[in-house]
Amino acid sequence: MPDVFDVIVIGAGPAGEVAAGRIAAAGLSAAVIEKELAGGECSYWACIPSKALLRPLDLAGEVARVPGLTLGGLAVDDVLARRDEMVSNFDDSGQVQWIESAGVAFFRGKGRLKGPREVEVLSGEGSSSSSSLTLTARHAVVVATGSSPVIPPIPGLAEARPWTNREATGVRAVPQRLLVIGGGVVGCEMAQALHGLGAKETTLVVRGGGLLERVEPYAGEAVARSLTEQGVRVLMRETVERVERPVPGGEITVHLGGGETLRVDEILVATGRRAVTADIGLSTVGLDDHRPVRVDDSMRATGVEDGWLYAVGDVNGISLLTHMGKYQARVCSDVIVARAKGTADDLPGMRDLADPIGSPQVIFTDPQVCAVGRTEAQARSEGFDVRVVEYEMGDVAGGSLMGEGYRGRAKAVVDERRRVLLGVTFVAPAASDLLHGATIAVTAGVSLDDLWHAVPAFPTVSEVWLRLLEAYGM
């Protein structure tokens, strides 16, 4: 029957695609439903386009640090054209072709749970051609609907039609005057990107006392210092009290809590995201449709009779990172296949072990912030016997070769009882390639004694590993 599948996936973003493709590859029939572009937020409006905009600025910073090299200037139109190329000009036909070539049935429309193992596909919502189709799953439904940006309830803000990550990464004309609200990843990355591309008057307003408050404090301090040096105005412990935009598309007046009034061309709101759970039918199966879907370590939703519902990626609220959503999808799909075929569903790869330990993250500012595992504060709050070691990355031979003014810091949080790493943070330009080694060490629980024999090549920045171990006393 064309409307019955072994597994139905709601959402064709990175996590949904991985789940559907892996399930189909294992021999089960699978369908995936997507109301927007197949490939999801990351491919078109987040990870990929933001890094395409940041990469030229990253290279310009490297060139500026190396004597003997000169930069001929930034061709903004070419940067935006490259961004468009990286997002396939916002055309998902190639992605749909890949999905179907993997043996997965693709449905364009809004997927909504209708009851146990039933999913309604709504197409053409709000028009006279609106229609629906009901699909039935023999074994499982996977919710992979992602997350959406939160617009805070500031008087006049919503009416001013502020930018979110989508408008920022998809920018066509860079505004001269830009206000960014929020000091998290999106706020910091896009303040730097848009300022470098022409937003000469860029102001970053942060309610708290620091940037990037989920990582080590020195990381946010380094990024704040860098943004300030580049010409971005960073206002800590400040709030936006009221916004006025009397003419659509015209000048915006922003009243700050400290009494200052700003006039800007656009506002970018980067104050967090929430799971997309509203209006996807969770209440029809007894779940709260106003909060993330709670799951166990096999990604199966808790509180659903017969255990047929799963949730992966941002929608379960565990870790709002693309690579972690794809990891959860691999876990989830293997478990579903095993349970459908009646084979062992508790093999080592069938449980989420990485999230509790700490997912890796790279923040692509200059300097880059690369972190995995627990921060020092988290480790202490959890009761670990903690020792911290740090080292200046510019002091290793590889760091000195990166150019004049290259600076950064590495920090390792050690569990003294087991002599293993609980968390590692690198803050420096071009530090991202150091992170996977740290991820392996943290998630695998590699002992410091074994790490001592992992000899870093000379002269590379990775020699900072040796310096950290020496600082520890190896």
Automatic annotation (TrEMBL):
<dbReference type="InterPro" id="IPR036188">
    <property type="entry name" value="FAD/NAD-bd_sf"/>
</dbReference>
<keyword id="KW-0274">FAD</keyword>
<dbReference type="InterPro" id="IPR016156">
    <property type="entry name" value="FAD/NAD-linked_Rdtase_dimer_sf"/>
</dbReference>
<dbReference type="GO" id="GO:0050660">
    <property type="term" value="F:flavin adenine dinucleotide binding"/>
</dbReference>
<dbReference type="InterPro" id="IPR050151">
    <property type="entry name" value="Class-I_Pyr_Nuc-Dis_Oxidored"/>
</dbReference>
<dbReference type="InterPro" id="IPR023753">
    <property type="entry name" value="FAD/NAD-binding_dom"/>
</dbReference>
<feature type="binding site">
    <location>
        <position position="314"/>
    </location>
    <ligand>
        <name>FAD</name>
    </ligand>
</feature>
<dbReference type="Pfam" id="PF02852">
    <property type="entry name" value="Pyr_redox_dim"/>
</dbReference>
<feature type="binding site">
    <location>
        <begin position="182"/>
        <end position="189"/>
    </location>
    <ligand>
        <name>NAD(+)</name>
    </ligand>
</feature>
<feature type="domain" description="Pyridine nucleotide-disulphide oxidoreductase dimerisation">
    <location>
        <begin position="360"/>
        <end position="465"/>
    </location>
</feature>
<keyword id="KW-0285">Flavoprotein</keyword>
<dbReference type="GO" id="GO:0006103">
    <property type="term" value="P:2-oxoglutarate metabolic process"/>
</dbReference>
<comment type="similarity">
    <text>Belongs to the class-I pyridine nucleotide-disulfide oxidoreductase family.</text>
</comment>
<feature type="disulfide bond" description="Redox-active">
    <location>
        <begin position="42"/>
        <end position="47"/>
    </location>
</feature>
<feature type="domain" description="FAD/NAD(P)-binding">
    <location>
        <begin position="5"/>
        <end position="322"/>
    </location>
</feature>
<feature type="binding site">
    <location>
        <position position="111"/>
    </location>
    <ligand>
        <name>FAD</name>
    </ligand>
</feature>
<feature type="binding site">
    <location>
        <position position="272"/>
    </location>
    <ligand>
        <name>NAD(+)</name>
    </ligand>
</feature>
<dbReference type="Pfam" id="PF07992">
    <property type="entry name" value="Pyr_redox_2"/>
</dbReference>
<protein>
    <submittedName>
        <fullName>Oxidoreductase</fullName>
    </submittedName>
</protein>
<keyword id="KW-0547">Nucleotide-binding</keyword>
<keyword id="KW-0520">NAD</keyword>
<feature type="binding site">
    <location>
        <begin position="145"/>
        <end position="147"/>
    </location>
    <ligand>
        <name>FAD</name>
    </ligand>
</feature>
<dbReference type="InterPro" id="IPR001100">
    <property type="entry name" value="Pyr_nuc-diS_OxRdtase"/>
</dbReference>
<dbReference type="GO" id="GO:0004148">
    <property type="term" value="F:dihydrolipoyl dehydrogenase (NADH) activity"/>
</dbReference>
<feature type="binding site">
    <location>
        <position position="51"/>
    </location>
    <ligand>
        <name>FAD</name>
    </ligand>
</feature>
<dbReference type="InterPro" id="IPR004099">
    <property type="entry name" value="Pyr_nucl-diS_OxRdtase_dimer"/>
</dbReference>
